């Protein structure tokens, strides 16, 4: 089942990366990042099962924690930007663009 | 092979929901699709004898993180005008094609290396006891550091969204 899970992981990562590049809504971009992180989790679990080692599970727990922190801070930033500029479109957030 | 059938059903629903996340116009529908996707992944975790992770996936991801996301989506209450028109530029199309090509390349190169047979896993592989023991002995330092990261994220999020006394930030 490892090969199939890795294929699914690749597919999920590509879908997430495409969403991150194509969608210009900041919230949907954050969701795409979650998709990519979940693809990584799938790969970790597949390898963990393959090797009979529980280390992959530890990594997944750490990644979940980082994802939670990222979602909290990212959404706080989205709320702040919406208050300041009344937009969540990433194309319009170009204040620091040279 | 009952597990294989379940795996393919869950994998198909994962991919369909993931495509829904990136193709729906409204962020609310995207979020609901993401919840479905995370539940399917939790099922796959359970099939891969990672019981603790399956429970955590539902509790932490589909529970806590998605509730936070839905709260923000409802709080902002975006109108279609604020969402902006969907602009498809040449660069985006090109980037998608490159990504798809990368994915296909990876998919074709992946199988055929002959995976070694998975060792016989005990019943307690991936249970709370095994994972917890590894987490609190061998991986104690990363665990503590991640707790510090969470603390910093909590304080950062509260500080960022707090309205200052002077009015406006």
What is the strand and helix layout of this fold?
The complex is a heterodimer of chains A (98) and B (169).
Chain A: H1 2-22, H2 26-51, H3 55-85
Helix pairs in contact in A: 1-2, 2-3
Chain B: H1 2-23, H2 27-47, H3 51-76, H4 80-83, H5 90-109, H6 128-137, H7 140-161
Helix pairs in contact in B: 1-2, 2-3
Q: Can you walk me through this structure?
A:
- The complex is a heterodimer of chains A (98) and B (169).
- Chain A has a single domain (2-85), classed as Helix Hairpins (Orthogonal Bundle), CATH 1.10.287.3510.
- Chain A has 3 helices and no strands.
- Chain A has helices spanning 2-22, 26-51, 55-85.
- The longest helix of chain A is centred in the last third of the chain and has 31 residues, at 55-85.
- Chain B has 169 residues and is an all-alpha fold.
- Among the domains of chain B are: 1-83, Up-down Bundle (Four Helix Bundle (Hemerythrin (Met), subunit A)), CATH 1.20.120.1200; 127-160.
- Chain B is 74% helix and 0% strand.
- In chain B, helix 1 runs antiparallel to helix 2 and helix 2 (27-47) runs antiparallel to helix 3.
- Classes of the chains: A mainly alpha (98), B mainly alpha (169).
- At the A-B interface, helix 1, helix 2 and helix 3 of A face helix 1, helix 2, helix 3, helix 5 and helix 6 of B.
